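Support reply, case 0932

Customer input (verbatim):
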Amino acid sequence: MKHDILIADDDEHLREVLDVMFRDSFNIYFSETGQETIEIIKKHNFHFVILDIHLPGKSGIEICREVSVLEIAKQPQIVILSADSNENLVREAYELGVGDYICKPFNVTAFKERMLRFSRDIDKIRELESKDSDIKGIAETVMMQSASYGSGLELIARMNKCHSARTLANELMMYMLNQGFHTAVQLRSKTRLYSYDADVNECSDIEMQIFDLLKSHGRIYHFGKRSIFNDNHVSVLVKNMPLAGTRSYDNLLDLLAKMVPAIDARFIAICEHQALIEAKKSLDGAVTLIGENLESMDKEQREILINIENKVSQSFHQLHLDEEQEAYFVNLIETEITKREATDSLEKVQETLGKCREALNVVEEKQEQPVVEEVKDADVELF
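Our regenerated output:
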């Protein structure tokens, strides 16, 4: 592909010579005055400009000075072609950033080869600049990922200290808000649903519908400027996703893809902890109830024995110990013992112990899930 060059000279004969010299290698544009030259330069991106130092209306030095303040992308490389070899003029031109200063008259062949070499040098410089820009971009990406990685690990450490669904969701939402992202979080256990919004505390009806519809639509689901990140017990809705294809977008995807399983694992641990607390409360109640009932049963047994003893003593005054009396004695004991009926307290004991078993079964089922492996991955591999 040919590069575009501008030949700015009021000498018609010289323009014709340069046209013949360079037409096979470049796309050539011409200008004859200083004002025309600077206007064309501002409108067009030239590979380089061959510029006469003494143009009508505006000198080559003035043009160089105006070019030097343009945007970098709009600044062409300038080669001065002039019969004026004044030392101060040459020095000023170089100070303004010209690529070369060639005095007239000049050798046509040598000048052509010099310009072709100059063109190749410009290509190499721009190639190096492009590579340098790519390297800087990669370095910036690595630095952003490193920063996200470090802050992500800090967030996981803070989440591991959370002991409720509210504090767990708040840690994530505040972290995301500090990064400039507005989120809503839903946490789901077998018995409860926790939904929070970083902006208005409680989720709106629309957000609740989004969670309900999209919680099973895969790990990551994009719609409009929003994205939802799902796991078994957690969904994170990002309401202002960065533009797709940007480094911010890619970094956020990498971060949340690993962060959400870590949140899910921590929420399971919180549920297990709460289930254990409930089981402990039930067990404490059962133990207290059993103790009270044992005391009551012991008291009843003592009262029965005293009652039997009193009645047996009374019977000695009424009967002699023949067979009939013996039968009466035995029947009396059996009647007093079987007179006791089952109490409601024992039924309460059975009900409480049943609740204990159910609570412990929930903990047991959750412990069977491969939670530890997910937490380990989340702690180590964020990208």
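We compared this against your earlier run and they match. Two observations from our side: The longest helix spans residues 247-318. Confidence is low (pLDDT under 50) at residues 367-383. Please reopen the case if you see a mismatch on your end.
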